[in-house]
Recover the amino acids of this structure.
């Protein structure tokens, strides 16, 4: 019998790594292409009879934003209280527990608000978008759009992208407010102050630049969640199982992208 | 048989060569489809007939060769020109490809909503008209998941003809349906041609349906055209592979022992 043909194992491993890298680069390129193509349709779509309509954008905002408000509120109250407990506990060692408001206000506004909202939206809506795009690809609905003369990016991606870019920062702003209220309700009896004094201290702790920092990040997260979901959804192969796979990877990739971008953004913004 | 009514055929495919990965699917296919005729593209599984249709829909990029559609060379069109060409073309996919998140009525209206400035009432009336044509009147408020296989295909046809296209492309319109429903769909396609003067391309592997509706038949086998002719010409062809296809005879592949061994070893 002849020996099995083909390259040896180490060679195949290297080939596998190479393939994964080119695949990742391709996905990045496709993502960037999608983003700029989306912007093109927003600004020039009407000129070439590919108008971006408002109704699906509002529908997206409803699902991604308004319907996520209860769960975001619940989580952010918990985050606010958790940060307060941790803050008081650790600052007590230095006798500085009154600094807790400064700590909580800053970390919620700059970090936890955008991050928790982003992760939640990636899990709720990024996965849903990936599932929708992949199902439509498999059932030839995307092809059907193309042969009807409807650009799939304009029709499917742009409403999601614009909807997310509006609603995720809005949701983040809400999340920050709720977390601060939650923290206030816990902190004031602990420190023996009033809610009014707490509010004044929050106001003194955070500036406009902190809010801008948080909301800019949430805007970037919105773009990342949408583009990652569309790239993953579009890469679907093989039936219902494939849909499940790309839905999972959209969440994993989405959250990874959020966390990594967060780090890079913070690094760049604090220098 | 219908004589050509205009000098420019509706579709002219020339020396079309296509690949899927490294595998060659179409090996130099040429055919013309004339105005007002029903051309059936026939062939077994893997013959490349669906690929050929996808190229006519401009969904794939060919390796070489050219496709002229309604007087336009597909390769030379930019995206905007391609989209406006698509408006003159209706497609019904094998699976129907109805948008599962919309009702049947919304599905049918979608091209009108995207491409015209008609008001809602007018669009709804037009959708009901097309539903009447495909015998689905009263089903506009159902979701696609609530329809049977035959109804989905008819709804897909209604959506394909909502813009009154000059050209209708159908992928396996009667596949997977029982004989009665399948025959009704054939009647429907004939009616569409006669009533609306459309040029229709149908891809199918159902012989009976092909013979019933075709003006001309293209027989495709392993990426090559075996014959193009009228129903009678194809039926009376003395080509062995065509006769095998028509008589549903399984073709024994001639095997080279060495090649067979190499294939089993995974070396081919």
């Amino acid at each position: 019998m002849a020996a099995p043909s083909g390259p040896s194992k180490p060679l195949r491993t290297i080939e596998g790594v190479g393939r994964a890298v080119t695949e990742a680069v391709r996905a990045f390129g496709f993502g960037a292409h999608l983003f700029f193509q989306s912007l093109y349709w927003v600004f020039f779509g009407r000129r070439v009879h590919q108008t971006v309509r408002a109704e699906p954008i509002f529908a997206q905002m409803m699902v991604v934003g308004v319907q996520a408000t209860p769960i975001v509120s619940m989580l952010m109250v918990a985050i606010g209280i958790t940060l307060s407990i941790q803050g008081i506990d650790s600052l007590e060692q230095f006798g500085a527990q009154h600094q807790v408001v400064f700590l909580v206000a800053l970390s919620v506004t700059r970090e936890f608000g955008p991050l928790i909202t982003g992760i939640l939206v990636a899990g709720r809506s990024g996965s849903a978008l990936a599932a929708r795009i992949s199902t439509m690809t498999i059932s030839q609905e995307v092809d059907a759009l193309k042969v009807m003369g409807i650009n799939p990016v304009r029709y499917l991606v742009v409403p999601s992208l614009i909807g997310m870019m509006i609603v995720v920062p809005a949701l983040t702003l809400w999340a920050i407010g709720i977390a601060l209220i939650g923290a206030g309700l816990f902190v004031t009896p602990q420190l023996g102050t009033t809610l009014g004094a707490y509010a004044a201290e929050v106001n003194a702790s955070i500036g406009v630049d902190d809010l801008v920092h948080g909301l800019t990040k949430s805007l970037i997260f919105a773009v990342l969640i949408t583009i990652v979901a569309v790239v993953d959804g579009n890469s679907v192969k093989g039936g219902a199982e494939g849909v499940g796979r790309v839905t999972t990877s959209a969440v994993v990739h989405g959250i990874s992208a959020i966390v990594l971008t967060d780090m890079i953004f913070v690094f760049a913004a604090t220098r | 048989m219908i004589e050509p009514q205009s000098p420019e055929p509706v579709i002219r495919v020339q020396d079309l060569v296509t690949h899927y990965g490294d595998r060659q699917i179409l090996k130099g296919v040429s055919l013309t489809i004339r105005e007002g005729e029903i051309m059936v593209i026939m062939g077994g599984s893997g013959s490349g007939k669906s690929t050929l249709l996808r190229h006519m829909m401009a969904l794939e990029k060919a390796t070489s060769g050219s496709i002229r559609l309604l007087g336009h060379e597909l390769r030379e069109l930019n995206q905007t020109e391609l989209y406006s060409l698509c408006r003159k073309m209706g497609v019904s996919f094998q699976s129907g490809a109805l948008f599962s998140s919309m009702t049947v009525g919304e599905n049918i209206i979608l091209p009108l909503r995207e491409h015209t400035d008609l008001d809602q009432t007018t669009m709804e009336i037009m959708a009901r008209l097309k539903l009447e044509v495909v015998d689905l009147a009263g089903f506009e408020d159902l979701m696609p998941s609530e329809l049977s296989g035959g109804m989905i295909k008819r709804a897909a046809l209604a959506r394909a003809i909502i813009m009154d296209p000059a050209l209708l492309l159908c992928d396996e319109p009667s596949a997977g349906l029982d004989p009665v429903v399948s025959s009704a769909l054939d009647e429907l396609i004939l009616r569409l041609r006669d009533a609306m003067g459309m040029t229709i391309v149908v891809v199918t592997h159902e012989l009976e349906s092909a013979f019933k509706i075709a003006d001309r038949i293209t027989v495709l086998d392993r990426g090559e055209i075996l014959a193009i002719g009228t129903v009678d010409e194809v039926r009376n062809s003395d080509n062995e592979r065509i006769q095998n296809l028509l008589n549903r005879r399984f073709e024994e592949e001639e095997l080279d022992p060495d090649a067979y061994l190499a294939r089993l070893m995974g070396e081919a």
In short: Chain A has a mean pLDDT of 92. The interface with chain B takes residues 2, 4-5, 48-50, 132, 135-136, 139-141, 143-144, 146-151, 155 of chain A (CB under 8 Å). Chain A has nine helices and no strands.
